[in-house]
Amino acid sequence: MPEKVKAALETPNTSGNSDVAVMEQEAAEAAKAYESVIADDLKTGFTGYELGDMLNQNKIQPQFREEVKNLRIPQFFMKSVPDLFWDTYELLEPEYLSDGFSLSGQEAQISFELATGEMYRVDIQEEGEAVPKYKRASKSESEYVREYLAKLPQDKKIQQCTDMICNQINKNNRYVSSEINDYVHRIIQNMTEDELAAMETAIPVYAGKIRQKIESLENIYRERQFYKLLDSGKVICRESYALPSVITLAQTTDAIPYSLYEAERDDMNIFEHSLIDMIVSLENIKWWHRIIERKGLRLNAFINHYPDFMVMTKSGKLVLIEAKGDYLDGDDSKTKLKLGRQWQSQAGRMYRCFMVFKEKKWTWMGHTHWMNFLML
Predict the structure, then answer these.
(1) pLDDT of residue 367
(2) Residue from 327, 333, 304, 307 nearest 318 by CA
(3) Measuring CA to CA, which residue among 68, 88, 71 is closest to residue 80?
């Protein structure tokens, strides 16, 4: 109702026990409980990737257990605060590379391609998942907001929109408030009257686009920092990741020979399936494993990259393989290629990382190159 919109715009939130605060507290408690369950799972070796005990648990095949028990796959570590006697390193997370990132002086050109000036409202369901849902605002609500902003002087209108967008972007205080405010203000003050009018009734949409822009700038900064710290020795690669003794999956397949586990995750597309079929036909393959997105081994740097497959050869070489259905020359593929090559050079001679394309070859990681390596 318009009364709710009016209250949100005109009444400051001074209560320490607001509904939002209560929800944040409940979310924090739920997260803490979840982390406790995960910690217990890790102690027992039963890593619940999806739904834990409700799903099939798949152990490492008996013939590979002793070998894999001692396997530690290299990952990147970042130098942390040293203790009294020696330097210390901790597993690198992308956010660690944001130290020093600033929006001051960053370019603020954003293309807002909005087909409509309709207003959207963010609601949280009273039942079920407490997830924000975008809903098209009613005609009366949209009219009220337009009328409210129309009465404000231009500078006040810009500041009101800036405040609303900043609140959407910086809910977790991820960025310095003053920098976010200045950056958003720079974007808005360069808008035409028509652009400003469209934004006034689609704040969540514009906030999302600005957030994406900020994240892209931060990602560029993280990548530069990673290679800079790698060159200086403040980021190193050392043996770290241990494969879990048990994985639990909703969809599984045990039809492909030489799998590391009793069954592997069955979420492969046609090209990925044909690729692993071709790999296991080679005489030098000892075992393979389907890496689980956001759960399994990651190449941790300025991004977390999860290759598709892990392959162990009989000669003791471990190979990470990323399958690409088509020839992709976009920034994402190039970034992953570069990171994979850097990991390979830092991990040592017994490790390789390849990106395999369905249709074409890259001169850098061609089809013949990786196939020849697997047969060594």
Answers:
(1) 44
(2) 307
(3) 88
